[in-house]
């Protein structure tokens, strides 16, 4: 056996490589969109109250908390980049409201003076800090609906 490993090692080194055990791949966080409230109830007045009644939420279905720092929620024309935010494990949720407000651990505010999500249909994209698409939520307007489970 020693002779075989020595031969394999010599062969690997001769090819310019080395024998290194590969590190296990890190599993992607168990994050996904949970719900999109894309049509603020009542008239679209663009008041801060109305803007904040439009929101989208993320849920962490994994067992460990996940840092969202640098992750993004992207619409066709706007991008929200998470700051120093952590979403708890085991069903932890974070809700991103369209308007202005004071961020908490579970409620964040885009700070927009305009609605983000189209009532007639839209797609929200969750991107990792490396810019890779992690999840999407797409909807089309259904009669009488103002939101959708993703």
What does this structure look like?
Residues 23-141 form the LTD domain. Helices cover 12% and strands 33% of the residues. With 150 residues, the protein is mainly beta. It has a single domain (31-149), classed as Immunoglobulin-like, CATH 2.60.40.1260. A hairpin with a 4-residue loop joins strand 4 and strand 5 (79-81). The longest helix has 13 residues, at 2-14. Mean pLDDT is 85; it is low at 1-25.
Under CATH, the topology is which? Immunoglobulin-like
Order of helices and strands: HEHEEEEEEEEEE
Level-1 CATH class name: Mainly Beta
Helix content percent band: 10-25%
Instruction: Provide the number of structural domains.
Output: 1
Percent range for β-strand residues = 25-35%
Tell me the radius of gyration.
Answer: 22 Å
Average pLDDT score = 85
Q: If helices are DSSP runs of H or I spanning 4 or more residues, what is the number of helices?
A: 2
Question: What gap, in angstroms, lies between the N and C termini?
Answer: 55 Å
Which shape, going by the Cα principal axes? globular
**Major sheet: arrangement of strands:** 8-7-2-1-11
Which homologous superfamily in CATH is the superfamily?
Lamin Tail domain
Poorly predicted tracts of residues: 1-25
Tell how many strands the DSSP assignment holds: 11
Structural class, judged by helices and strands? mainly beta
Do you know the CATH architecture? Sandwich
Structural features:
5-stranded mixed β-sheet, mainly beta, disordered N terminus, 150 residues, globular, signal, Immunoglobulin-like, Lamin_tail_dom, LTD domain-containing protein, Lamin_tail_dom_sf, 4-stranded antiparallel β-sheet
């Amino acid at each position: 056996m020693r002779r075989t490993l020595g031969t394999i090692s010599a062969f690997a080194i001769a090819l310019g490589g080395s024998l290194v055990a590969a590190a296990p791949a890190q599993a992607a966080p168990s994050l996904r969109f949970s719900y999109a409230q894309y049509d603020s109830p009542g008239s679209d007045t663009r008041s801060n109250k109305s803007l904040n009644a439009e929101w989208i939420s993320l849920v962490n279905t994994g067992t460990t908390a996940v840092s969202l720092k640098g992750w993004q929620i992207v619409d066709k024309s706007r991008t929200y980049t998470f700051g120093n935010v952590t979403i708890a494990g085991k069903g932890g949720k974070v809700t991103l409201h369209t308007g202005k407000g004071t961020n908490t651990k579970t409620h964040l505010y885009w700070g927009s003076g305009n609605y983000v999500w189209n009532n007639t249909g839209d797609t929200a994209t969750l991107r990792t800090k490396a810019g890779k698409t992690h999840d999407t939520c797409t909807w089309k307007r259904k009669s009488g609906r103002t939101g959708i489970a993703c």
